[in-house]
Amino acid sequence: MSGERLTIKTPDGAFSAYVARPVAAKAPAVVVIQEIFGVNAVMRETTDWLASQGYLAICPDLFWRIEPGIDISDKTKAEWDRAFELFGLFNAETGVADIAATIAAIRADTGCNGKVGAVGYCLGGKMAYLTAARTDVDASVSYYGVGIDSLTGEAAKIKKPLLMHIAGEDGFVPREAQAAIHAALDANPLITLHDYPRRDHAFARQGGEHYDAADAGRANDRTLAFFKANLG
What we know:
Blueprint: E1 3-10, E2 13-20, E3 27-33, H1 41-52, E4 56-60, H2 77-89, H3 92-107, E5 112-121, H4 123-134, E6 139-143, E7 162-167, H5 175-185, E8 191-196, H6 213-231
Parallel strand pairs: 3-4, 3-5, 5-6, 6-7, 7-8
Antiparallel strand pairs: 1-2, 2-4
């Protein structure tokens, strides 16, 4: 396993992605979709972790159209202010296009066996849901995605399995929104929802204010089992 940079070209320009390779010469790939802090240490560590689990992992810089190379943390007010500013400026439509370009690029990599999954957190959780609906990804995982309650109509376009982790005390996804998500998605045979009733937003972000080791471990184990079942 080693961290490297890959340049992905689109009709609008090129952007960078962080790549971590597993020991195996060929493996399924997983696109790691960032939070609102850019491709920061947490996202790189998540990418490295997936590589240690046997996946060719890639984390694209989805903020490149706003400012390339954003790498901030959740530790100061100034960084939070900047993160929310970036969230407001981010365009989900072009974000999906950039994820699709990332999927195509990593699927063509000599280290990929042809299968590609995606996992996203926070903003990335929303984008993982849209990735399931709008791209040819083979399986997707959404951690505490924001704004999905207003996008439930997209579920009709989902053709491959989607796993969703929902924080019951999510400060950014109120219970009414969670109820709307369940009402719209529970009956879909391709979608599996897991609730973590006592957890707040970003409970799986190691080192974060709301990190919970037990439920983060439970969610991550479910994610790995899901990828093993759907990516091989």
